[in-house]
Inverse folding.
C-alpha cells in the first residue's frame, strides 16, 4: 500500500476526424477511492474511458496504473495484467448459464493460466473452482441474487442481469473498475442494490472506482470526488456538493 494514486492519467487527447472528443484531460483516482466523472452528453466521458482502458489509443497523453505506464496496452492486457476492468453501457451476460456459473466463468477468465484448466482439466483445478465458488456465492448474496442463483441469467430482469454483470466483474479480483453509466435504465430498487454492491466492493474488497453517472443523487451518495467534463475538456473538479453548486457546472448542463 503506497500513497500513489491507483490510476494517473496525464493530458490525454483524442480526436475522431475533425471532432476533438477529449482535449488534454488529466485525472487521477486515489487508492481506495470512488471518483465520479460527469458532464453533458457528448462531453467525452466514454471516449476518456476508451482511452484509459485500451479500447482506443489516445493521440497524446499517458496512462499509469499502479505506478506503471500502460499507455498503448490492449484492453485485454490491461484487464489481465493491470487488473483494471471497465463496464459498457450494454449489459452482457451468458444467458444460458445460471447466475453462479456466470460468476465462476468470469473468475476463470483471468485467474486460470490455460484454456484446459478453464474447463476443469488440470492440476489444482478442483481447489481453484471451490475457491471461485465461495467467492461467487459471497458476491451473489451481496448482489441480492441468492434466491435466483440457479436460474439461467437470460430468464432474469434487465436489472438483475446488470447485477450479474457487475458481480462478475468483481470475480477476478480487480484493483480498479471503471463504470460507464451503471444505473442507466434500471429501477430504483436495483439502483439501491448496485450502490450497496459498489460500496461493499470498495470497503470490503478494496476496489477503487471511477464512475460515469448521470444520476446526481447517486454521485453525491457514493463519490468522494467528482471531475466534470465539458466539450472534451476538464471544467472543474471537487467535492460532490461543491460541484453541484458550481455555477460553471450548471451552465455547462443548461447551456449545452
Ligand atoms: N468512435 C467514434 N467515432 C467518431 N466519433 C466519436 C466516436 N466516439 C465518440 N465520438 C464523438 O466524440 C464526442 C464525445 O463522445 P463521447 O465520448 O461518447 O461522450 P459522452 O460519453 O460524454 O456522451 C462526441 O462528439 C461523439 O460523437
Ligand atoms: Mg457516454
Amino acid at each position: 500500500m503506497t500513497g500513489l494514486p491507483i490510476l494517473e492519467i496525464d493530458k490525454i487527447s483524442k480526436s475522431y476526424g475533425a471532432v476533438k472528443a477529449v482535449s488534454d484531460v488529466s485525472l487521477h483516482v486515489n487508492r481506495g477511492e470512488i471518483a465520479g466523472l460527469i458532464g453533458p452528453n457528448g462531453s467525452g466521458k466514454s471516449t476518456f474511458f476508451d482511452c484509459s482502458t485500451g479500447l482506443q489509443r489516445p493521440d497524446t497523453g499517458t496512462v499509469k496504473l499502479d505506478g506503471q505506464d500502460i499507455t498503448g496496452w490492449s484492453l485485454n492486457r490491461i484487464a489481465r495484467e493491470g487488473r483494471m476492468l471497465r463496464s459498457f453501457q450494454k449489459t452482457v451476460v451468458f444467458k444460458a448459464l445460471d447466475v453462479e456459473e456466470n460468476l465462476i466463468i468470469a473468475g476463470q477468465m483471468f485467474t486460470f493460466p490455460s484454456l484446459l484448466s478453464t474447463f476443469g482439466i488440470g492440476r489444482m483445478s478442483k481447489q481453484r473452482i471451490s475457491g471461485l465458488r465461495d467467492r461467487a456465492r459471497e458476491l451473489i448474496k451481496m448482489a441480492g441474487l441468492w434466491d435466483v442463483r440457479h436460474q439461467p441469467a437470460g430468464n432474469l430482469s434487465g436489472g438483475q442481469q446488470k447485477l450479474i454483470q457487475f458481480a462478475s466483474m468483481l470475480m477476478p479480483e480487480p484493483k480498479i473498475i471503471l463504470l460507464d453509466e451503471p444505473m442507466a435504465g434500471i429501477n430504483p430498487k436495483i439502483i439501491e442494490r448496485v450502490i450497496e454492491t459498489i460500496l461493499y466492493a470498495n470497503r470490503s474488497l478494496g476496489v477503487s472506482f471511477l464512475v460515469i453517472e448521470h444520476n446526481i443523487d447517486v454521485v453525491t451518495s457514493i463519490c468522494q470526488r467528482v471531475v466534470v467534463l465539458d466539450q472534451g475538456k476538464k471544467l472543474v473538479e471537487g467535492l460532490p456538493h461543491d460541484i453541484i453548486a458550481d455555477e460553471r457546472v450548471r451552465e455547462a448542463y443548461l447551456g449545452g
Notes: Residues 125-142 form the longest helix (18 residues).
